[in-house]
Write a structure and sequence with these properties.
By secondary structure, the protein is α/β, with parallel strands linked by helices. The protein is built from 19 helices and 24 strands.
């Protein structure tokens, strides 16, 4: 336990949520298909080249047997560096690590002679020439010109100040302390060994580096956490993309969902009657999104307490990957349609949605969203348009809809529509108590888009859910309400882990209010699912104790992966299994009609 605590504290202190991004070192860069330029274009700060002196020429090679007369230090590295300088190409600090493979003194003398032909390089304040491999004795470092510095590879710090001043970095072999291959995690023993050697290297007050390291995302992540100044890689572009986005992809939970333990009292009922239906859609909320919110919330959410779970297939009629419009339409109408369709079939003809069908059964209905109310998902539950982009027409459809309650953003779409003649537009949910039981009500959260959790939305979704359920239940008629956590999808499109995690936790706070209501009511069915998954999100790393998640992404768009569906309340077992998204509508209608018999 103490060792785990030590590891947690050390990782947190050295990484500070990856605030300090290390520099990246292109190991054996000359072996790349495009030496120098591949690493430079990826933004790497350090580039390593093996050099062998033969017959007065500095060849780029690891050994004399591999010499290629066309591959010299000048052609592959010094001339490209001059192109950068002559063309005023912007760069940050650039270090050329020359790994000497032949005689140290003779090769270094030739390197100096060669560099003198490149005054722009040796005089540049942001360029360092660092000698590694075969080097002169450390006590002679001070004898070399200012533009030459050294890679020190001893563990003792007995250098005289004048020689220590010539040390640009301190390096050692990772394999001397661990046989880890970069998969999984360091063992506790290896972690201790590596941590101790890092502490010793840090005592030089110089940048530090390991060579002979594993070269994987897990390895790069570990070395960033451990506080290395340079991370070794033979995959410059991939490593740069991973490390430079690590801070953006790693997030800490900003809020907490107080997990509610359901009673499951409905299981004791012989005749399970469904009176009300609360239907949650987490837009873009796939299994990994739910996992990230769960792990960041002390490994528990209210939704993860539920027993009846299935999976939904999400394809639309015209695409392998659905959009929110077609996904919402399938849920709302029971018919699959084409992407961008809002409440219409594949021919573009209007088809009844669930709020209209249930209105005829004397139900009250509602929609809540953290999107604009004319967004694709809520619109599918009240509108009929051939394209989700027909925003003005969708707004007009809200006025002729059967909804009794709505809440969302986007008041700007209704400025000329006299919506207050159809709905009682209130400023907040506390004003719902002042309305007559027969009143239809609406709340606009914003003129345009709705704030995210990170922007300060607070507990708006959960409070609106709670108060809307009270408002609808007081009408003394059964009700159906769709509640959308819209911005899980938004942050998936942005590949923003923090947004995904916090919007997911906030979504669970609203689910909590619904489960509490269902337990108190006894005749309410709660369904939680997603219209699709967004971004191919994965949870690759994290820390449960610090509520920290590292996410990964394969796309900025939707994916076709199945999404989970959870159900709680009477007849919730009907929602188990694997089935198409449009079947959810039919299952809801089936359990409602069965309850009326």
């Amino acid at each position: 336990m103490l060792r785990k605590l030590f590891i947690c504290v050390l990782l947190c202190s050295v990484s500070a949520l990856y605030a300090q991004t290390p520099k990246l070192h292109s190991h054996n860069d000359y072996m790349q298909k495009v030496p120098f330029w591949n690493a430079f274009s990826a933004g790497l700060n350090s580039i390593e080249v093996d050099v062998f002196l033969k017959k007065g020429k500095l060849y780029v090679t690891h050994s004399v047997n591999e010499i290629d007369k066309n591959k010299t230090l000048e052609k592959l590295y010094l001339d490209p560096m001059m192109e950068v300088l002559n063309n005023n190409i912007a760069f940050q600090d650039l270090q050329l690590l020359v790994d000497v493979k032949s005689d140290a003194i003779k090769t270094l003398d030739k390197i100096q002679q060669t560099l003198k032909k490149y005054p722009k390089i040796i005089q540049h304040s942001q360029i360092k020439i660092v000698i590694s491999g075969n080097r002169p004795n450390a006590e002679d470092y001070f004898k070399y010109p200012e533009y030459i510095s050294f890679d020190y590879q001893e563990l003792d710090n007995a250098l005289a100040p004048k020689n220590l001043a010539k040390v640009a970095m301190v390096s050692t072999s990772f394999k001397d302390y661990s046989v880890w291959n970069g998969k999984g995690r360091l063992t506790h023993d290896d972690f201790d060994k590596v941590s101790n050697i890092i502490k010793k290297l840090k005592s030089f007050n110089k940048p530090i580096r390991f060579w002979a390291t594993p070269d994987s995302k897990s390895a790069w992540n570990t070395f960033v956490k451990l506080g290395l100044d340079f991370v070794n890689t033979d995959q410059p572009s991939k490593c740069a993309e991973y490390v430079n986005t690590l801070n953006h992809r790693t997030a800490k939970a900003l809020i907490k969902s107080e997990v509610y333990q359901p009673t499951f009292e409905y299981e004791k009922q012989v005749n399970q009657k469904v009176k009300n239906v609360i239907f949650f859609i987490g837009d873009g909320n796939g299994l990994s999104q739910i996992s990230s919110a769960t792990l960041a919330n002390n490994k528990q959410l209210t939704v993860t307490q539920l027993k009846n779970i299935g999976f939904i297939k999400t394809q639309s009629t015209d695409d392998f990957t659905t959009d929110s419009a077609a996904g919402g339409t399938a849920f709302a109408t029971g018919q699959k349609s084409y992407n961008r369709a809002i409440g219409v079939n594949t021919n573009g003809n209007s088809i009844p949605n669930i709020t209209e069908a249930l209105h005829r059964l004397n139900y009250k209905t509602g929609c809540i969203t953290t999107d604009e109310i004319i967004g694709a998902t809520p619109a599918a539950f009240y509108a009929h348009q051939k394209d989700r982009g027909f925003e003005k027409q969708i707004a007009k459809d809200l006025l002729t809809s059967k909804l009794d309650f709505f809440a969302g953003g986007g008041s700007r779409f209704f400025e000329d529509l006299k919506i207050d003649q159809v709905f009682n537009i209130v400023a907040n949910t506390s004003q719902l108590n002042n309305l007559d039981k027969s009143a239809r009500a609406g709340i606009f959260f914003s003129k345009g888009g709705v704030l995210s959790i990170a922007e300060g939305r607070g507990n708006l979704l959960a409070k609106t859910t709670k108060d809307a359920l009270t408002f609808l239940s007081k009408k003394e008629q059964p009700f159906f309400i769709m509640i959308e956590g819209a911005q899980i999808d938004t942050f998936g499109h942005h590949n923003d882990t923090e947004g995904i995690v916090n919007e997911g936790i906030d979504f669970d706070r609203a689910i909590t209010e619904a489960i509490k209501f269902a337990d108190a009511d006894g005749e309410t069915l709660v369904i939680i699912t997603a219209d699709h998954e967004t971004s191919g999100f994965s949870v690759s790393s994290g820390n449960v104790e610090t509520h920290q998640i590292e996410g990964g992404f394969i796309t900025h768009d939707h994916t076709a992966t199945m999404v989970p569906i959870f159900a709680y309340g009477p007849q919730s077992d009907k929602f188990r299994g694997v089935y198409e998204n449009n079947e959810v509508f039919h299952k809801i209608m089936e359990v409602i009609n069965a309850s009326k018999k």
